[in-house]
Amino acid sequence: MAAYEILIADDHPLFRSALHQALTLGLGPEVRLVEAASIAELEGRLGEKADWDLVLLDLNMPGAYGFSGLVLLRGQYPQIPVVMISAQEEAAVVARAREFGASGFIPKSSPLETIQQAVRLVLDGDTWWPPQLQDVASVSAEAKAASAGLASLTPQQFRVLTMVCEGLLNKQIAYELNVSEATIKAHVTAIFRKLGVRTRTQAALLLQHMESIPGS
Fold it and tell me: What DSSP designation does 52 have?
């Protein structure tokens, strides 16, 4: 039985490999590390098993809009701690990770020892934030409202929402997901109700509140 089971979600194979090596060295050979290269893959892993000890989540993952991946995870799997990992190290980015429910934030520029220490702390039930970025700004009310709405979506609804925001029509989304157009219409209605929006444009704007830097 593995001492810890950790999901590494990052779309860069080299960084996943480096993280794999760092965690094996830091936590011992009995740690079980599983990798995912996209939000869809991550959801698949979580669908198979929901009692992971930790998810290490890259901020800019395929299939997510900035922090929407974090918000989705916190909404669907609140029992699993999530630590964000990113090359974006601005104070505003760290603040948003904290506000949206992450248990920590590891800059990709961190030395090996820092990554190991951060992961150990979170596995022990603590949190870890970059020491130089403790005093950071808070998140806007709009972003918090967007976060609450997104957290209530199911993974399938979130997938439909991202496709809506990419400009796909209901029939195109139905084809992509191999379901009927009526099913997609029902999903869109439910999504709009949960997000408190009435149009596709409003839904897209709400998702933009999840981008990593406000106003970028």
Answer: -
Neighbours of 86 (CB within 10 A): 21
Tell me the CA end-to-end span of the chain in Å, nearest whole number: 45
- Beta partners for residue 9, in sequence order: 36, 57
Q: Are strands 54-58 and 32-36 parallel, antiparallel or unpaired?
A: unpaired
- Under DSSP, the state recorded for 178 is T
| Other residues' Cβ atoms within 10 Å of the Cβ of residue 122 | 22
Q: From CA 163, how far away is CA 175, in angstroms rounded?
A: 12
Q: What is the value of pTM for the model shown?
A: 0.72
Residue 136's beta-bridge partner residues?
none
List helix spans (H) across 49-180: 68-76, 91-99, 112-123, 141-151, 155-165, 170-177
The tens digit of pLDDT for each residue in 14-35 reads 888 888 888 998 888 788 999 9
